[in-house]
Amino acid sequence: MTILFLCSGKSSCKSLIAKTIMESMDSKHRVLSAGISPVKEINPLTIQVMKEIGLPMKLADLQPLAELKNEQIDYLITVGEHTKEEFHHLPISYGNKLHLSFNNPDKPSSRYDSQLDAYRHLRDEIRTELDYFYHRILKEKAAN
Hints:
Elements: E1 2-7, H1 14-25, E2 30-35, H2 44-52, E3 62-64, E4 72-78, E5 93-99, H3 115-143
Parallel strand pairs: 1-2, 1-4, 2-3, 4-5
Helix pairs in contact: 1-3, 2-3
């Protein structure tokens, strides 16, 4: 099964966080990460919060969407802040599409004590959603 996490690719690397977490859950699946406009480097706070849970990240894992146009994707999971127009007309083939909306940790918010806390919240929120996806969708589908 091939799973693609797609983000807009602005700065917080949500798709890379999702890819890294999903791979840590189960190595049987092929997990890809792409950005519509991929970043050139990973935000250091992203690297730090993932390192805190023992999951290193590599920028090489993030691909431009255009490189995946010939891939057969079983699950396309968009991980933008909202369902953006850029996620509606994608040049790839996929069987199932899900959208998980996560706030951008780079935007100022009085909700967190620091920007680092905002990144920790993002990481934990992604992990919670992927735990549900893995146990309630992928494992149940494999059992049937």
